[in-house]
Amino acid sequence: DTGVSQDPRHKITKRGQNVTFRCDPISEHNRLYWYRQTLGQGPEFLTYFQNEAQLEKSRLLSDRFSAERPKGSFSTLEIQRTEQGDSAMYLCASTPEGITGELFFGEGSRLTVL
Amino acid sequence: AQSVTQLGSHVSVSEGALVLLRCNYSSSVPPYLFWYVQYPNQGLQLLLKYTSAATLVKGINGFEAEFKKSETSFHLTKPSAHMSDAAEYFCAVNPSGTYKYIFGTGTRLKVLA
């Protein structure tokens, strides 16, 4: 399978714990995005990378959230000191160069904070 | 700020009936527009996109959308609904000159037998 893969698919954690999600984009795609989706809402932009450079971060991304993309390949999204409001589906997408390119989404990582 | 508005969070149609899902965008410059579909427990999949070429865009599974600048709209249609079309549909905009994709709140389509 050469699509976008995300791991883990489901994560249940207790409030205050740290969690990390991983995204492996399609190999030739140099742009990578993280979105958050809550029930009944559309995906909300969190951040995106051009190769290893993080070019834009949403105001939604508080200081408890950090994303990295070392070497411009896979990316991780870490949430520290999780809160119940962090419960959501975290979506990763990638796209090749070109402003009109479609986003290729992974199946998401669902986070439940108890 | 650039945005998209999807009118109707839930739409029900009978099998074989016309599907019409509405999307309006706000932009001073015609943006790039997309429709995505999301089936339960799956990621989003592109249905079609408008990138300033033809205003009537044809996508997968018999869907099409028409870009109307005067109405700032990009409504999604399908002449005849099929049970397998039941899913959530998202309109998205990529404002000209940016790499940021902004999604609407989605419309859940239900197809009645």
Polypeptide structure, described:
The complex is a heterodimer of chains A (114) and B (113). Chain A has no helices and eleven strands. With 114 residues, chain A is an all-beta fold. In chain A, strands 2, 4, 5, 6, 9, 10 and 11 form a seven-stranded mixed beta sheet that branches. A four-stranded antiparallel beta sheet of chain A has the order 1-3-8-7, with no helix packed on it. The mean pLDDT of chain A is 92. With 113 residues, chain B is mainly β. Chain B has no helices and twelve strands. Chain B has strands spanning 3-5, 10-14, 19-21, 24-26, 32-38, 44-50, 56-58, 64-68, 73-78, 87-94, 102-103, 107-112. In chain B, the strands form three sheets. In chain B, strands 2, 5, 6, 10, 11 and 12 form a six-stranded mixed beta sheet that branches. Chain B has a four-stranded antiparallel beta sheet with strand order 3-9-8-7, with no helix packed on it. Chain B is globular. Chain B starts with a strand and ends with a strand. The model of chain B has no long low-confidence stretch (mean pLDDT 91). Chains A and B meet through strand 4 and strand 5 of A and strand 5, strand 6, strand 10 and strand 11 of B.
Features:
heterodimer; A: 114 residues; mainly beta; 7-stranded mixed β-sheet; 4-stranded antiparallel β-sheet; B: 113 residues; 6-stranded mixed β-sheet; globular
- Average pLDDT confidence of chain B is 91
Structural class of chain B: mainly beta
Largest sheet, strands/sense/barrel of chain B: 6 strands, mixed
* Cα-to-Cα separation, first versus last residue of chain B: 41 Å
